[in-house]
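Provenance and format

Records in this collection were gathered into a single text stream. Each protein contributes a sequence line and a token line. The two records reproduced below are adjacent in the stream.
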Amino acid sequence: MLEDKLNDKISHRPDPEKLVKEGVLQNDPRTAEEKYEEAIEEEYAKREGGA
């Protein structure tokens, strides 16, 4: 249930390049996609009590 809710939000997220252009994401050596995936993994860990 929670997983479905989060996956639905992920499916509607803006394009990472658009977020970089708008200044929401900062440009660094990692791609916007890599940063996003890392943030999602951390969020899953928090919700599962792992972090």
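Adjacent record:
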Amino acid sequence: MIGAKPRPARRLSAYDMLTAWHGLFAGAWAVAYLTGGGAMPLHRFAGYVLLGLLAVRLLVAVLARAPGMWALPWADAPLWRSFRRKLGQDAVAAFAGRTPLAPLSGLALLVAILLVTLSGLLADLRIAGDLHETMADASLMLVLGHLAVVASAALLRWLRAPAPRKVG
């Protein structure tokens, strides 16, 4: 529109930035995994992007003033107790809410992909090629496990949600 005043830009929240980081991380992992057998310049670039994103994530987690969204994924004792209690009452309900499995799978992924990228650096030196390939294949299993944990919790929440009431 002519003469319309532009809206001020919305300030990015910690959630927005973490979501962007997660998208870049997942995308770089997918590119690295899918190009491992052929397009080595792209594979290496994606590996360096992953290493940089991991460094940013660890640096922000260390420098963050208080535990919050950017803290490393960690399931604390109260979350485990709550999960165990819910599991004894209604197993389906226990998995429909926030479980310690999501942060646990996220932390396992961060550690595994750090090891994959470091072994990739060694593979460039012709030292650990087989180790790098084996660890990369294992990271696929962790990614699929993480997706299953997150998707199953969302699906169970959706299935257990009350049906919308009809008005009228």
